[in-house]
Design brief:
95 residues, alpha+beta, two-stranded antiparallel sheet, globular
């Protein structure tokens, strides 16, 4: 487990927060017939979401690089189809 940064949260804390959101996703999907979920978040949250949603093994998130800015990763039918837009490096962001 990674330590918390000052005034921040550890990766474990992020995972707990993401896992808590899963119940809302499933309830809303069942109640309203939602078939598509779009998650827009920072890299650590995105990696935590993917690890838990796809049931990846412990440590998977730590091995994955943080996604680039504005990258888009597609998960369809619980299959990771990878990045459909690779994103931008910090110095490549259009102005």
């Amino acid at each position: 487990m990674m330590a918390k940064i000052p005034l921040g949260e550890s990766r474990y804390d992020v995972c707990l927060r993401v896992h808590a959101a899963f119940g809302s996703f499933h309830r809303d999907a069942d109640k309203h017939g939602i078939e598509t979920i779009v998650v827009i978040a920072h890299g650590t949250v995105n990696r935590a979401f993917l690890q838990m949603w796809l049931h990846k093994p412990k440590g998977w998130m730590d091995e994955q690089p943080n996604p680039k800015n504005c990258s888009i990763r597609l998960i369809e039918d619980n299959e990771d189809l990878g990045y459909i837009f690779p994103g931008f490096e910090r110095d490549e962001v259009p102005k």
